[in-house]
Write a structure and sequence with these properties.
Elements (H helix, E strand, L loop, with lengths): L3 E7 L5 H10 L4 E5 L12 H6 L1 H18 L17 H26 L2 E4 L1 E4 L4 E5 L5 E11 L3 E3 L12 E2 L1 H4 L8 E5 L3 H12 L3 E6 L10 H13 L3 E4 L2 E8 L2 E8 L2 E7 L1 E4 L3 E3 L32 E3 L10 H15 L13 E3 L4 E6 L2 H7 L3 E7 L4 H5 L6 E7 L5 E8 L2 H13 L4 H6 L9 H10 L13
Parallel strand pairs: 1-2, 1-6, 2-3, 6-17, 8-15, 9-10, 9-15, 10-11
Antiparallel strand pairs: 4-5, 5-6, 7-16, 12-13, 13-14, 18-19, 19-22, 20-21, 21-22
Helix pairs in contact: 1-4, 1-8, 3-4, 3-6
Length: 479
């Protein structure tokens, strides 16, 4: 007779491991299945985000920024001169690997502390809420479950014109492990991943060209913020070619030539390395047996309702394999919601208020609606903008690029969106998320006491500016 669990979670990424821990905390007998093998040859928890995504990329972004400041004169203004600054790329990558190892080990410790059973191998949902686990040596075990949470995550999309060879042509995972700085680096895709990885290697000395098929830069971002970002990244040395459709590639003598078309016709460029960062696709193939009854759309996403329940009672799906943005924090909150709903609680997600961040320098972050969305919806709105150039704290840090932009409803004054490009943008937008969760108005934020001097004051001033009350910049004259 097979072993039975109250909850079996397929996948131990930021959605799966969080769901498993919360389910166990609620008294449910819980197992979590993971097949990913880390660099040490053992099963590693944490999914893409922890192993080859959010965390390692932030480690490299921070290391590369420190090098850039010291090497390229960013410290001179502080009276600090640094000569002979060099970068030891293997040491930088080794530090990144150690951080990943510490955190994946931390998840394993949390599993033990909360009584979650780890099942190592490939998980597959069968009919009647049975789950099959195939270990790395091919051994198959079937478990019974009262509830199943599928959290199998996503994987980088590969494209036929630039087939990965994991040497000269790599995906985001390969780009985290370069052992030397490529002289010329090509990036296909000017999205979050492409810009972050392009920034890392650009700061370390690569000549970076980003090829983006869309004619518009960062189409999901507020237009004013996106324009500022394009100007800033170009100034930093990233060559961003919009409307560039890659048609093919050729590897010769350790270099890769990329063929593409743009407004000027057919083009080609040769690089030492090419990163393909055109997005991610859900991992749902091989996760569902033929007779499970779980519905999938044509792109491989599992159909779920607002509470992440699939078409089969007792089977849930969360994270990158369902609708909504492919973000770790969205997956984690869905995991908690599902675990709590299984025991009869009634939490729900605020899908309209999921913040997004691009961890370049300056950071770009946003939550809620942007101007182009509100225009298309016919909503009357007002805008308050405060530039970091007028922030005393930003001046002290020599980091004055960018702005905070707050959008509020013209009639009710309710905050509809917060958009930031600049220092600590992610942290400032999070303040906007909290305010918006509580239905804050721009006036509410304007009446709140912010400590001085802080970067947060820029949000305070943007809220005041929305109503023409900004103190530290001139207010727009009302028409």
């Amino acid at each position: 007779m097979s072993q039975k669990f109250d909850v079996v979670v397929i996948g131990a990424g930021p959605g799966g491991y969080v769901a498993a821990i919360r389910a166990a905390q609620l008294g449910l007998k819980t197992a979590c299945i993971e097949k990913y093998i880390g660099k040490d040859g053992k099963v590693a928890l944490g999914g893409t985000c922890l192993n080859v995504g959010c965390i390692p990329s932030k480690a490299l972004l921070d290391s590369s920024w420190k090098y850039h400041e010291a090497h390229d004169g960013g410290l001179d203004v502080h009276g600090i001169s640094a000569k002979g600054v060099s970068i030891d790329v293997p040491a930088m990558v080794g530090r990144k690997d150690q951080i990943v190892k510490n955190l994946t080990g931390g998840v394993a410790t949390l599993f033990k502390a909360n009584g979650v059973t780890l099942l190592e191998g490939h998980g597959k949902l069968l009919a009647n809420k049975q789950v099959e686990v195939t270990s790395s040596d091919g051994q198959v075990t079937v478990y019974d479950a009262e509830n199943v949470i599928i959290a199998s995550g996503s994987t980088p999309i590969d494209i036929p014109p630039a087939k990965l060879n994991h040497d000269t042509i790599v995906d985001s995972t390969g780009a985290l492990d370069f052992q030397t700085v490529p002289k010329k680096l090509g990036v296909i895709g000017a999205g979050v991943i492409g810009l972050e990885l392009g920034s890392v290697w650009g700061r370390l000395g690569s000549e970076v060209t980003v090829l983006e098929a869309q004619d518009k830069f960062l189409s999901l971002v507020d237009d004013q913020i996106a324009k500022d970002a394009l100007k800033t990244f170009t100034k930093q040395g990233l060559s961003i070619r919009l409307g560039a459709r890659v048609t093919g590639s050729e590897v010769k003598k350790g270099k890769v030539t990329v063929f593409f078309t743009d407004a000027d016709g057919e083009q080609q460029m040769t690089f030492d390395k090419l990163i393909v960062a055109v997005g991610r696709r859900p991992v749902t193939d091989q996760v569902l047996g033929a007779d499970t009854g779980v519905s999938i759309d044509e792109r491989g996403f599992i159909f779920v309702d607002d509470y992440c329940a699939t078409s089969v009672p007792g089977v849930y799906a969360i994270g990158d394999i369902v609708r909504g943005p492919m973000l770790a924090h969205k997956a984690s909150e869905e995991g908690i919601m599902v675990a709590e709903r299984i025991v009869g609680q009634k939490p729900q997600m605020s899908y309209d208020l999921i913040p997004s961040v691009i961890y370049t320098h300056p950071e770009i972050a946003w939550v809620g609606k942007n101007e182009q969305q509100l225009k298309s919806e016919g909503v009357e709105y007002k805008v308050g903008v405060f530039p970091f150039a007028a922030s005393g704290r930003a001046m002290a840090a020599n980091d004055t690029g960018g702005m905070v932009k707050l959008i509020a409803d013209a009639k009710t004054d309710r905050v509809l969106g917060v958009h930031v490009i600049g220092p600590s943008a992610a942290e400032l937008v999070q303040q906007g998320v909290i305010a918006m969760e509580f239905g804050s108005s721009a006036e509410d934020l304007g009446l709140t006491v912010f400590s001085h001097p802080t970067l947060s004051e820029a949000l305070h001033e943007a809220a005041l500016a929305a109503n023409g009350h900004a103190i530290h910049i001139a207010n727009r004259k009302k028409r």
